[in-house]
User: Fold this.
Amino acid sequence: MTPRSLIVIPTYNEIENLTPITDAVLGVTPETVHVLVVDDGSPDGTGKMADELAKKNPRLHVLHRTQKQGLGPAYIAGFRWGFQNNFDQIVEMDADFSHNPKYLPTMLDLLNKHDYVLGSRNVPGGGTVNWGILRKIISRGGSFYARTILGVPVRDFTGGFNGWNRKVLEDINLDTMESGGYSFQIELKYRAYRKGYRFIEFPIIFEDRRVGKSKMSSKIVVEALSMVPKLRFKN
Assistant:
């Protein structure tokens, strides 16, 4: 039986990207793949537009949250929605085209053979486009830092384009996740690895967002860096 897959896309003020990204995702995936937009009360009307799009396509769904609470809680809410609606696989994906939908068929195919799959900028064939040298240093340095301290052979620890078989997410106890921002991606991968699940990284080219404003900030970077030793010495 073909597994049912859910692409979870968190949004906050992504009204310019919403229609193009959902059209692109649904266009490259089979009928068994659905999309869930998790909107954190976007003041620009993203949530309302998502509702309108969902009325036109039964494969598109919307989960509204009343306020911006961070990337981690948004994804966890999406994961739980996926569990409740009997999806077998769940993919994390940004709304701004930095994660190109063309990689989804490859990711979903690999998910049939591995417990979780990571779209990686840091394996041969992967990379970034339109990034300055400082951002490259922060990204690669952050992954190297996490990999070294945690002792986990993940090349792209901070990347957010990841696919999970349901059993992995159910087993890592989402109720006790401590990370709210981008360190959520590090903690999720670390917990899955500690549980002994099998993963693979495959190369992606990460493109800077086409429109809209980046959510990255120095505060987010500091939070991610400080969370790594907490994970290591707590476990």
